[in-house]
């Protein structure tokens, strides 16, 4: 067991099963944090319990999952990752009046887990801008996969802020048994910050949708260019195919066949047709 104070505890799963306070109050039906999927807070007359699932800012990393229980005398975390212990250590090292009670500590903890999120979202926006520039410059290889990954990441982040917003609302609307009015005021400020982060996430979702449209437009332009080239080549060779078909017919009385310069004349006519078509296409700005 890791004790940060007499009433603030960070326990591992096996320690929870032996902890008399948790067993008596039945705060958790199971202590397996690996099944946690959401950030939530469940309010009861004299206590609040809930879970956290914080999405990682690194690619292909699992979320940080832990549970908590809070009442007037106890603040208990169930964490296997070590994140909570490290976070509380950094929080308590700072001089802040909110350290005096559990509500203030929870408020500081909530601030801690989103401390760099605005920077992260700003950097994500820069990455999307770079992706858009590459697409517009014609570098569109495997961009569909990258866009899909970005959509998933931002959607997870957006849902995360929605859950934190609901959690903050539960804390803010608690019936003055666990939190002071001053702490509740901080929860209101925190809720406003979450709303701004949520709005920023929504803007990123819209930006990704815009990039997807740009990517699709570039694909359409590339496909149109390919079709234009094929159409031009087909148009140039259509009269040549006519000539080839014409002189490929098995007629023995065609005068050109007996002419000494007939073969050369057909070659010259074919070249003139090709040059005329190229000149005509350029004049009409087909390419």
UniProtKB/TrEMBL annotation:
InterPro entries: CorA_cytoplasmic_dom, CorA_TM1_TM2, MgTranspt_CorA/ZnTranspt_ZntB
Protein known as: Magnesium transport protein CorA
Highest taxon of the lineage: Bacteria
Subcellular location(s) of the protein: Cell membrane
Catalytic activity: Mg(2+)(in) = Mg(2+)(out)
Topology of the protein relative to the lipid bilayer: Multi-pass membrane protein
Role summary: Mediates influx of magnesium ions. Alternates between open and closed states. Activated by low cytoplasmic Mg(2+) levels. Inactive when cytoplasmic Mg(2+) levels are high.
CC annotations in GO: plasma membrane
Residues that span the membrane, as ranges: 229-249, 261-281
Keywords: Cell membrane, Ion transport, Magnesium, Membrane, Transmembrane, Transmembrane helix, Transport
Gene Ontology MF term list: cobalt ion binding; cobalt ion transmembrane transporter activity; magnesium ion binding; magnesium ion transmembrane transporter activity
Organism annotation: Candidatus Limivivens merdigallinarum
Family the entry assigns: Belongs to the CorA metal ion transporter (MIT) (TC 1.A.35) family.
First-listed, main subcellular location of the protein, grouped into a coarse class: membrane
Coiled-coil zones: none
Keyword Mitochondrion part of the UniProt annotation: no
